[in-house]
Design brief:
- With 181 residues, the protein is α+β, with helices and mostly antiparallel strands.
- The protein has helices at residues 19-27, 29-32, 44-54, 106-121, 136-144, 173-179; strands spanning 2-5, 9-13, 64-69, 75-82, 90-97, 126-132, 148-154, 160-167.
- It has one domain (2-128): Aminopeptidase.
- It has an eight-stranded mixed sheet, sandwiched between helices.
- Strand 1 and strand 2 form a beta hairpin.
- The longest helix is centred in the middle third of the chain and has 16 residues, at 106-121.
- The relative contact order is 0.14.
Length: 181
Amino acid sequence: MMRFQTNRLWIRDIVEEDLDSLLLLYREKENMKFISDGRTEWSKEQLRDRYKQYNTCSDSGIAVFAVGIKGTNTIIGEAGLFNSFGDTKKLELGYILDKEYWRQGFGTEICRGLIDYGFNVLNVEKLIARMYAENTGSVKLSDKCGMKRVEAGETINKKAFYEYEIVNANIPLNLQSLKKR
């Protein structure tokens, strides 16, 4: 199922035929260096199980999706909205983009597309993005997409991280202030 499109990209549900392309993405060290565990040893079955785990709520639109270039079947990454907080009105957004497509504006399209999809299709109240502080591309991207840094800290493995958020502008202001408490 197609979830949304941007100027140059399509974002849709992952199907079995996508796994080989996504497996190549996951096995590339450079692509995974800013992902929490940085793991690159994946089997097709492990990746399939990962998507099954994250996509248990895909009927609701909360899932990991394949990202590809319009007019082609070329998959360049994955993107999704995650129920990391046990609250379907407050979701985490995230993506992995193949290094061959970095610094070409695709990350901005993905992030803005996820924000629009989350707020205008899923009616989410707040979106969160978390990243290592050394991931300067994602830090700049979060700022560029209108997200505000709300937290900085250190992970268990002593890596500095940032947390960004953006609140749905369609929620009345008095509800926004209540949600922050």
